[in-house]
Amino acid sequence: MSAKLGAVGSPFKLIIVLLIFGCCHTFALKPHILGRHRLTSLTAQRPITYKTCYFEQQIDHFGFLENGTFKQRYLVNDLHWHKEGAPILFYTGNEGDIAWFCNNTGFMWDTAEELGAMLVFAEHRYYGESLPFGQESYSDAKYLNYLTSEQALADFAVLIQALKRTVPGARGSPVIAIGGSYGGMLAAWLRMKYPSAVIGALASSAPIWQFTGMVPCGDFYKIVTKDFANSGPNCSKNIKRSWTAINNLSSSEAGLEWLSKEFSLCSPLKKPEDVFGLKSWLQETWANLAMVDYPYEANFLQPLPRWPIEVVCKHLYFDKDVSDYQLLRGISDAAKVYYNYTGNTQCLNISQTATGNLGMMGWFYQACTEMVMPLCTDGIEDMFEPQPWDFQAFSDECYSMFGVRPREDWVETVYGGKNISSHSNIIFSNGDLDPWTSGGVTANLSHSLVAIKISNGAHHLDLRYNNEYDPASVITARQEEVKYFKQWIKQATSSR
Q1: Quick check: is 434 catalytic?
Q2: d(CA 309, CA 332)
Q3: Catalyzes what (predicted)?
Q4: 32, 37, 315, 459: the active-site residue
Q5: Which domain holds residue 285?
Q6: Structure confidence at residue 7 as a pLDDT band (50, 70, 90)
Q7: What is the pLDDT of residues 345-360, one digit of tens each?
């Protein structure tokens, strides 16, 4: 989700880690809504090629007064698609540049030849080049009115219909939706809302239940804490102790200066209130690391080593008698595993934690309207300072920023919440290391609404390229996913 961020200066900071949705720029909202993001491997991968195309989409699919259109970008590879009626794997774009997702969704590229499939990567409206009002799209909140998941799903359904109508040989092609994090949510919802458009969907690390009243708001950070607790002795305990240590040192000018130098901050801490930003930034960093705890070197929002949390925890082995200075020196070294693994970073900027390929302002708006995903901490069952979920404070932040109020129950109304057993042909895959599993579907709901669990799997590990260090669990998961794809394709073609 993206990950699913954060903000300096507000007691109710919003973390929007996008799945994806994942993690991003620090911002003045609340620390309880994360976005989701896609990742890219540092290991060798075969070169890919695609055609860049544009489709004229309606700005408003559900009304008749706004008659404007915009060019939706989509990318196509038909290298292995040689047979009339052969399948199409359709990536439901997340909150970012579609070329970035295209280059980093290796599972689709690894699977295309086996299925003889065409690959289509559709960009989500308001992200990348797909801007309904061009450069004015973010200039005023009135232009953002058409940035909703419902409009995006309609874009995908209309585009699929157009492809079947205009691409020679595609009229009878079965289409399977694939996405990760927020994109995985969209893939599942596309199958639910437009079953005639796609025969099935793979929703990887898709927290479709991370909404008000569906799951406990504290579960996300419990998983983050567990990941650190299992990766090194005293690791989570020392992170939990670090918040008090930061408070102690920040009470003096000398302490602020020491913190600024020790953490190599680009902008020194000037007053005790600035420390809120430092702590928010660290909280996001630990959450990001939990999402991308991969078994090989990878480049998520930052380049990282194999099993990065284990590397982080090597700096946090102290017993309880360590001084505040020693403890925070270890915290600084641990944070630099995330921010300076390459050794090329001159200073650390606590106002950002993520890549520029993600459209964070757009996700902030979505989080402030329908994507209300409560997250909280209690400081008891997790390693963070207590931060209860406060919807009213969150709503006030959103109104101050965009002039809109969030509808916290809207997603359940539109997509059914936990009452989705009447749907069919959706795979929900989740890794046990991924904190977004807290809002995911982790048990079978019917014979065709199936859950695949990936042990030692982080955020949508199954959608990444095959890698020599992949755990057996993700290899098995991908095989099972392809098995379902083949079943769906056989069912669709035999019923024609």
Answers
A1: yes
A2: 14
A3: Cleavage of a -Pro-|-Xaa bond to release a C-terminal amino acid
A4: 459
A5: 221-339
A6: very low
A7: 999 999 866 555 566 8
